Structure formats: C-alpha cells, structure tokens
Amino acid sequence: MSYTAATVQLLSPEGTIVESDASAEYLPLIDALSDEQLREFHRQMVVIRRFDNEATNLQRQGQLGLWVPSLGQEAAQVGSGYAARAQDHIFPAYREHAIARIRGVDPLNIIKLLRGTTHGGWNPAEHGNFHLYTLVIGSHTLHATGVAMAMTLDGTTGTGHPETDGAVITYFGDGATSQGDVSEAFVFAASYQAPVLFFLQNNHWAISVPVSTQSRTPLYLRSEGFGIPGVQIDGNDVLASYAVSFANLERIRAGGGPRLIEALTYRMGAHTSSDDPTKYRENSEVEYWAERDPISRFETYLRGRGESDAFFAELEVEAADFAADIRGRTLALETPSTAKIFDHVYSEPHPVIDSQKQWLADYEASFGGDQ
C-alpha cells in the first residue's frame, strides 16, 4: 500500500517543492521556517540515524538485549516532533528515538531501557512531557487519550491561547490499528472531543504481516468511522510531517477535537533485532522505498536552496562523534543493584516494600562473598 491520490506531499522524492491543491494549505507554514530550522530538521534526522545504526551494532555485540530500529522513519518523527509545543504531551510507542531526543531525552536512557538497567528510563516531567516507551502494542493510546481528557477537565486547552493551550500526540504503527485498545481510544477521544493527535506511522509491516492484509482500505479512513477526521501524508517528507502536524495541532488546541495523521513511511530495517525481514519481504519493495529515503531527499532540497558542502561535512562529523559518545557511555554502564527494583514502587516509604527489600538483601547475603 503506497501513496494514494489523497496523500499530502510537500517535497517530492526528487527534492523539489510540490505545488498542488493538497499542498496549498500547508506551504505557507514551510515558507515561515527559517534556514536554521530547516538545518535542524536535517541535523536531527542524520544524527538519530547514526545513533540508530550504532545501537544496532551494540546489540549485535551483546551490549543490549534488544534494539528497535527507526531506520527510514526519521522524517515522520522529526517533522511531527518539531510541530509540537513545549506544553504538549507525547506518548511514544517504542521506536520514536528522534522525538525523544527533540524533547530532551538523552538517547542513552533509551539504551539503558533496552539494556535492562532501568525499569522506567526517564521522568516525563523532566523531559519535555515525553512519556515512557510502551512495548504493549497500542495500550498507550488509551493513556494519551486519558491525559487529553484531563486537559479538557483542567481547562488547560481550548482557551483560545495556542501558546499555552495543550495537546497530546500519540504515536503507533499500522499493526496497532488492529488492536482493540486503539479503537477504544478512538471512542473516548471522539466522545469527549479530547485534544489528541493520533499519529500513525504506517511502515507497512506489523512484524511479518503486511498492511495490505491488515486493512483493505487506507488506514486514515479508520478513524473517520469513529468521527475523527483523518489525513494521509507522505511520511518520508519531513516538510509534510511538520506542516500537517502543526496545522492539526493548532485546530486541536482551539477545541476542534481529535485528529489522525497516517504517515506513509517504510521500516527499512528489521522490526526489532530479533527479526529477519528477508524471510517475508521482497528486495524490490525495499529498493522502491530506498529511492524515497527521507534524508537524501531533504539533503537534495537543502542543496537546491544553496546549503554548503561544509554544512553536510560538519554534520557527518557531529553524527560520528555522537555515536562514539553513545558507544563509550554504553560500555561504561554498570549493573544496578537489585535493590533498585524496590525504590520507586511507591512515592513514599512503604513497610511491605521495605520488608521485601530487606528479605532480598538478606537472601543474597546468605550466599556469602560479593553480590
């Protein structure tokens, strides 16, 4: 399932601006972007891809239990990530590495999570309201909808002040649309007109099941059956991801109710490091999407605007340095004490937890030697 007549595209695969009836609404938002903002879009995509490749290598070398790559989905994430405002809440699935970095999460915290040295990873309140990764498919869309409903009840949205009004974005994949949790989230979001943007990254594969098996119609139409307007975009076009997300978030903050964006992209790598995509998909399909790579497309666009060779060369060095730093800090991680599992069960000391913690300490001490 590739692009359709309904797909909003602002930047063609050849790296040129698309002027059409579908793009006319959004092009003014692109014109308003500064050169530095455009450079930042590219910087984030390049650096996070290099990080992603390094994390994949670390997993193969036994440093991580699992890795979830985002290769090929950088534009969908970076564009929508920059469309959000500081007061917005972000509920990711488990491969939104670029958005995490944009919101202030140190990517090493993602490494720790998949290395198994942390049970939480980060405090959303300290990281731009970016909530924790969720491996349970689709369940976080309910959490996102609940927070959006709370914003309405608290009066922190829909007041007519977009600079302070809040919204929620929740990210999920095509496979998650087949989960009941997502449908339930649609029901509550529509019923209560919750200020939530459902951002569907359709990367065409729910592990080994193609999207064509999951749905006989474009996925953006599913939400419309619940009364939630949907739009389909070229998810490998960072400008479309930014502009369409920005426009829909503004409508949501103004009291326009929930919306859905289906970003057509492609998972260039494996579903996770435990998956072998060569077992279920054709090379021709991968080659088709490689020609629509989001980073090379945007680089062509920037070069056409006069961006210098020096910028791209410096960015490659920055990305390599970032990856090397991640590798060094990963190798330096220490195994946490088993006592850590008790530390944040409750916000205040609890006698039962304290007794369990002491029992485990005594049990380990009974073996003698260093534990």
UniProtKB/TrEMBL annotation:
Annotated GO biological process: branched-chain amino acid catabolic process
InterPro entries per UniProt: Alpha-ketoacid_DH_E1_comp (IPR050771), DH_E1 (IPR001017), THDP-binding (IPR029061)
EC number: 1.2.4.4
Stretches assigned to the Dehydrogenase E1 component domain: 44-306
Catalytic activity line of the entry: N(6)-[(R)-lipoyl]-L-lysyl-[protein] + 3-methyl-2-oxobutanoate + H(+) = N(6)-[(R)-S(8)-2-methylpropanoyldihydrolipoyl]-L-lysyl-[protein] + CO2
Cofactor section: thiamine diphosphate
Gene3D superfamilies: 3.40.50.970
Key words, A-Z: Oxidoreductase, Thiamine pyrophosphate
GO molecular-function term, one example from the UniProt record: magnesium ion binding
Pfam families xref list: E1_dh (PF00676)
Oxidoreductase is among the record's keywords: yes
CDD domains membership: TPP_E1_PDC_ADC_BCADC
Function: The branched-chain alpha-keto dehydrogenase complex catalyzes the overall conversion of alpha-keto acids to acyl-CoA and CO(2). It contains multiple copies of three enzymatic components: branched-chain alpha-keto acid decarboxylase (E1), lipoamide acyltransferase (E2) and lipoamide dehydrogenase (E3).
PANTHER family noted in UniProt: 2-OXOISOVALERATE DEHYDROGENASE SUBUNIT ALPHA, MITOCHONDRIAL
Recorded family membership: Belongs to the BCKDHA family.
Name recorded for this polypeptide: 2-oxoisovalerate dehydrogenase subunit alpha
Species of provenance: Glaciihabitans arcticus
